[in-house]
């Protein structure tokens, strides 16, 4: 892993959130929020004509907001809700900056830079971008909503070892079950804690427990709340 920065003069490919996409998201969700807020009383009135619609008390309350100022207030609330939703979308977006020497990943407050020389395989596992080193250790596993073609083209353009066949170790994964004798007691405890974090969707704990398992030599992938693991036979303390 390297701490070098990408030169502004160096050819690079950016995949993910950009300023133009940000303008589109904030503008689009903001406008949708204003429109929904402005017409919310009318929408509530229409919903009340449907006998099967629940929460009729709340709908009647919303429908009571008639007149100029109540409508303006609802439109402003809709605008704020739209901007908050756009912020969440942007915050959860993965940004890749790829050059011929390194790839930089940014997501929320997380940032990581990996040199091309340290990467042996790059592939997509569903919607997750994965990078492996020569030993099979996972350097990166991050969710991306970009198209597979856009991601693969960007990496191949800069000479990265892209695997169109997916994970070369996919046949080594086994589903984890509680207290499986095939892994250590400490790894079992971490897997159990991580399973609970997956059920509660606690993203920081999910990441932290994955990293702790990696230190013990176990690589983990998920299918919803199901965990699958494989063993890496090397000292990974320096990662």
Automatic annotation (TrEMBL):
<keyword id="KW-1133">Transmembrane helix</keyword>
<feature type="transmembrane region" description="Helical">
    <location>
        <begin position="21"/>
        <end position="48"/>
    </location>
</feature>
<feature type="transmembrane region" description="Helical">
    <location>
        <begin position="68"/>
        <end position="90"/>
    </location>
</feature>
<feature type="domain" description="YqeB PH">
    <location>
        <begin position="13"/>
        <end position="163"/>
    </location>
</feature>
<protein>
    <recommendedName>
        <fullName>50S ribosomal protein L29</fullName>
    </recommendedName>
</protein>
<dbReference type="Pfam" id="PF23493">
    <property type="entry name" value="CysS_C"/>
</dbReference>
<dbReference type="InterPro" id="IPR056411">
    <property type="entry name" value="CysS_C"/>
</dbReference>
<feature type="domain" description="Cysteinyl-tRNA ligase anticodon binding">
    <location>
        <begin position="180"/>
        <end position="230"/>
    </location>
</feature>
<dbReference type="Pfam" id="PF23494">
    <property type="entry name" value="bPH_10"/>
</dbReference>
<dbReference type="InterPro" id="IPR057798">
    <property type="entry name" value="PH_YqeB"/>
</dbReference>
<keyword id="KW-0472">Membrane</keyword>
<keyword id="KW-0812">Transmembrane</keyword>
């Amino acid at each position: 892993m390297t701490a070098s920065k990408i030169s502004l003069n160096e050819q690079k490919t950016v995949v993910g959130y950009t300023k133009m996409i940000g303008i589109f998201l904030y503008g689009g969700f903001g406008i949708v929020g204003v429109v929904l807020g402005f017409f919310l009383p009318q929408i509530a009135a229409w919903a009340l004509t449907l006998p099967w619609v629940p929460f009729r008390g709340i709908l009647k309350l919303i429908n009571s907001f008639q007149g100029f100022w109540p409508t303006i207030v609802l439109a402003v609330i809709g605008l704020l809700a739209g901007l908050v939703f756009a912020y969440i979308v942007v915050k959860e977006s993965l940004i890749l900056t790829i050059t011929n020497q390194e790839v930089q990943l940014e997501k929320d407050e997380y940032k990581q830079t990996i040199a091309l020389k340290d990467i042996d395989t790059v592939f997509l596992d569903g919607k997750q971008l994965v990078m492996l080193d020569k030993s099979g250790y996972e350097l990166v596993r991050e969710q991306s909503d970009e198209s597979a073609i856009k991601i693969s083209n960007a990496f191949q353009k800069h000479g990265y070892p892209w695997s169109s066949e997916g994970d070369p170790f996919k046949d080594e994964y086994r589903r984890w079950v509680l207290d499986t004798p095939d892994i250590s007691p400490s790894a079992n405890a971490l897997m159990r804690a991580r399973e609970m974090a997956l059920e509660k969707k606690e993203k920081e704990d999910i990441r932290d427990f994955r990293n702790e398992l990696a230190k013990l030599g176990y690589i983990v992938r998920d299918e919803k709340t199901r965990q699958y693991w494989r063993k890496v036979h090397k000292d990974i303390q320096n990662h």
